[in-house]
Amino acid sequence: MALLPYGDQGAASEETLKLLNSGRVKLNVSRMIANSNAVFKYFNQLGGALIGKAKLDPKLREIAILRTAKICRSVYEWTQHVPMAKHVGVTDAQIAALEDWQKASCFNDLERKVLRFTDEVAANVKGSHQAVEDLKKDLSPAEIVELILTIGFWGMVARLLETTEVDLEDFAGQVNLLDANR
Question: Are 89 and 61 in contact (CB under 8 A)?
Answer without folding.
Answer: no
